[in-house]
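Progress note, project year one: complex with nicotinamide-adenine-dinucleotide.
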Amino acid sequence: MTINKVCVIGSGTMGSGIAQVSAQAGYETTMVDVKQEFVDRGVKMIQTSLGKFVERGKIGQEDMDRALARLRTSTDITDAARDADYAIEAVFERAAVKTPIFEQLDRSCPGGAIIASNTSGIPISLLAAATRRPEKVIGTHFMNPVPVMKGVEIVKSLLTSEETLRVSVDFVQSLGKETVVVKDSPGFVTNRIVTLVMNEAARLLEEGLATIEDIDKIEKLSHNWPMGPFELADLVGIDVIVDLLEGIYQQTGWERYKPAPLLNRMVEIGYTGRKAGKGFYELFGQK
Ligand SMILES: NC(=O)c1ccc[n+]([C@@H]2O[C@H](COP(=O)([O-])OP(=O)(O)OC[C@H]3O[C@@H](n4cnc5c(N)ncnc54)[C@H](O)[C@@H]3O)[C@@H](O)[C@H]2O)c1
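Model obtained:
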């Protein structure tokens, strides 16, 4: 199977990043969202990101121009998916939002097309069940920021075919990424581990073991991490972490994934991290 045309549903943080790397890799790429202003915002994010790569000498101006020329936008999934060889869904992390999109993509994409989800933890089997081609449904879990981060988890459901897996691994690698194949299990590998680290860090803070500066400092110095758990939590968004923990907890019942009370409190008072302009460091950092 040859992939020429890629359709990305959702033009937010992840969708715009995926559309960018797809267009950069030479695929005719269409990015879809529900409103024109959202796709316009996505295109702006792509322009800014490509502009930074040009400034730093990582790509030439002509590479940026070629990538942008391969990018189309749409507010109509049916139309955008009509001739797609590979569709990637990157909308809100809610099964109720994703499932109808899978139904629609199944109706609109050519019969041979693969439909992937960038979900952080919704079962791929559940999304596959909304289609008449479950063997062609797979997870491609890109990391944020997509144009920078190398790793992608490829999530194989019980029904994903070997052919879909092979084509997907080749496709994602053609975007300059490295892949790891994982089973369709809550949180996959990355979020099973990183959420626990952040949950435990919040508990350490609750117990008063050390300051947040010192917890971050010792983790960076001891394990060579580029960021400490609180710096990462503020970057990712504390609400996102709570949703991820809650999602794994609800699906498995494993107590260790129950969000630490402090994480819930942070969300309740609106201290969700960098995007809100206030997070762990504003509340607990040394003034
Ligand atoms: N942000 C991260 O760090 C990260 C990392 C890995 C995976 N993910 C996953 O990627 C997915 C997208 O996350 P995000 O951070 O980009 O979210 P986001 O909120 O930035 O973007 C979601 C976009 O989807 C659009 N959308 C919603 N319903 C739609 C519909 N019916 N049709 C078309 N577009 C629609 C929204 O308008 C929005 O622009 C989620 O499943 C998330 O769990 C996020």
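The mean pLDDT is 96.
The longest strand covers residues 137-142.
No further modelling is planned for this target in the current period.
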